[in-house]
Amino acid sequence: MNGPGEWKHQEGSMGEQTFRIRTWIRASDADERDGLVGFLSFFVGDLIVDNVTLRRTLDGRFTLSWPARTDRSGRRHSTVRPVNDEARKRIERQVFAELGQRKDLVARREVDDA
Q1: Of 13, 55, 60, 92, which one's alpha carbon is 20 to 30 angstroms from that of 82?
Q2: Looking at beta carbons, which pairs linking 96-101 to residues 24 or more positions away fall under 8 Å?
């Protein structure tokens, strides 16, 4: 039996987590020229994940950057991140699919690609 403050680890899965975008804020034109597309917050199950950025890489791909803090030595430490590359790709596919349905992102992308 577990006493106060003890945590009993149990193997298993929490099951499928619901995912949806909570907020989307488009970056300024100046920021977009430097690759920053916008800022996201989303629901993952019962959690809210804030301060995720959508960026465009030099080769034109979209990618997500996850929130991190910087310590006194200048090293960055993630506050939340995907557990592995497979999870990152799965999350990015979901985010990009949901954003692809938004007229404010699609319209800008069509102008950029023209």
Answers
A1: 60
A2: 96/62, 98/20, 98/21, 99/21, 99/24, 99/54
